[in-house]
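Researcher: I'd like a candidate sequence for this fold, 244 residues long. If you have to choose between options at a position, lean toward the conservative one.
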């Protein structure tokens, strides 16, 4: 498939449509009721939840079970989901595992909060969704805690160095103030990203300052703040058109 359409749902939740297949990441809520139209002509749905926090995992995803080909869920969701979902439809992933199901390949990486992050290969596309993997440096926190956050992120980044993503979703949390882009900067410097999509922004638009990306790694970026906003991507030159 040479194109994809991405719909922003809320927080870190996105629907990625490739042909007649939808990949739904970290569904939290859909207050603008746009998901039904996204899925209307899809004959296959894959659902991904990176961890159990309520703004990344909503038990309502079980209501889609009839049309879902597979759920890829973090290991920490299992206690909450095992009584809700049929086991043959669910794959629970620990960090640093790879599974291949039908036409999709899913690799898990670690997190600096709960759960995991995802690297998905489907129809020639490579998609990274960080979940809550980030450099969580909080202004006003203790030096010890912020050093721990830095070291923990650096440890996870070693596993990702050299990764190539056509599309990468990464947290840029405005609550971190001047430190909100520490993590994404390091991630983009150590991997190759063609289209960066900001998430977990708390509704605040982010724009990279001049020189933020290394010269040899200039990339497109998108920071949606309005639920239901869409981005269309063509694979060739990764030319993008935003709607809403």
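Model: Candidate sequence:
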């Amino acid at each position: 498939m040479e194109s994809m359409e991405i719909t922003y749902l809320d927080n870190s939740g996105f629907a990625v449509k490739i042909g007649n297949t939808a990949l739904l990441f970290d569904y939290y809520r859909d207050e603008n009721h746009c998901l039904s139209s996204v899925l209307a002509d899809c004959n296959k749905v894959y659902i991904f939840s990176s961890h159990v926090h309520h703004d990344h995992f909503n038990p309502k995803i079980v209501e889609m079970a009839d049309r879902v080909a597979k759920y890829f869920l973090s290991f920490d969701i299992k206690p909450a989901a095992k009584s809700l979902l049929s086991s043959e439809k669910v794959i629970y992933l620990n960090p640093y595992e790879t599974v291949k199901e039908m036409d999709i390949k899913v690799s898990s990486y670690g997190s600096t909060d709960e759960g995991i992050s995802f690297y998905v290969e489907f129809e020639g596309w490579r998609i990274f969704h960080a979940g809550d993997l980030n450099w969580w440096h909080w202004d006003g926190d203790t030096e010890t805690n912020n050093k721990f956050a830095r070291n923990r992120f650096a440890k996870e980044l070693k596993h990702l160095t050299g990764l190539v993503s056509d599309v990468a979703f990464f947290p840029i949390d405005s609550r971190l103030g001047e430190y909100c882009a520490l993590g994404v900067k390091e991630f983009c410097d150590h991997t190759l990203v063609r289209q960066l999509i900001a998430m977990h922004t708390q509704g605040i638009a982010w724009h990279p300052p001049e020189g933020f990306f290394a010269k040899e790694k200039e990339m497109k970026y998108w920071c949606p703040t309005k639920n239901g906003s869409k981005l269309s991507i063509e694979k060739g030159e990764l030319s993008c058109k935003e709607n809403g």
